[in-house]
Design brief:
Shape: globular
Structural class: mainly alpha
CATH class of the largest domain: Mainly Alpha
Strand content: 5-15%
Radius of gyration: 16 Å
Number of helices: 5
CATH architecture of the largest domain: Up-down Bundle
Mean pLDDT: 92
Order of helices and strands: EEHHHHH
Largest sheet: 2 strands, antiparallel
Helix content: 40-55%
Low-confidence stretches: none
Number of domains: 2
CATH superfamily of the largest domain: CarD-like, C-terminal domain
Strand order of the largest sheet: 1-2
Length: 132
């Protein structure tokens, strides 16, 4: 039996995933965000963070759902809300870890959609976050 597959390689993690064409939508595989859509998500980063007063465990659960949703706008909201400038209150270890995961995913997609290297994309995003 022959089947067509998407082959996805994550060089940084040394991981290769093979997804059958027929199951791509089912597992949530989507196209890379377009440059205009990505530009709209940058405006989300410029907004003030919306930090709820709920317990961290509840907020962490919400952030985790947003990170894993596959929606780039929701991912940008997590990056915006968890980012802390050097002069702001310190984050817990779990907050920093969650920010790092969201930031790296967002930055990778931004880099690809903007034809930039990861480091360049990271610098641009940090500049935006530090200006608010």
């Amino acid at each position: 039996m022959e089947e067509q597959l998407y082959v996805i390689q994550f060089f940084q993690d040394k991981l290769t995933i093979r997804v059958p064409f027929a199951k791509a939508k089912l597992i949530g595989l989507r196209n890379i965000t377009s440059k205009p859509s990505m530009t709209r998500t940058l405006s989300v980063l410029k907004q003030k963070p919306k930090i709820k007063k709920a317990m961290w465990s509840r907020r962490a659960q919400e952030y985790d759902q947003k990170i894993n949703s596959g929606d780039i706008k929701l991912l940008s909201e997590v990056v915006r809300d968890l980012f802390r400038k050097d002069d702001q209150t310190e984050q817990s270890y779990s907050e920093r870890q969650m920010f790092q995961v969201a930031f790296e995913r967002y930055t990778r997609e931004f880099a690809i959609s903007s034809s930039l290297k990861f480091e360049e994309a990271s610098t641009k995003i940090l500049e935006i976050l530090n200006k608010r």
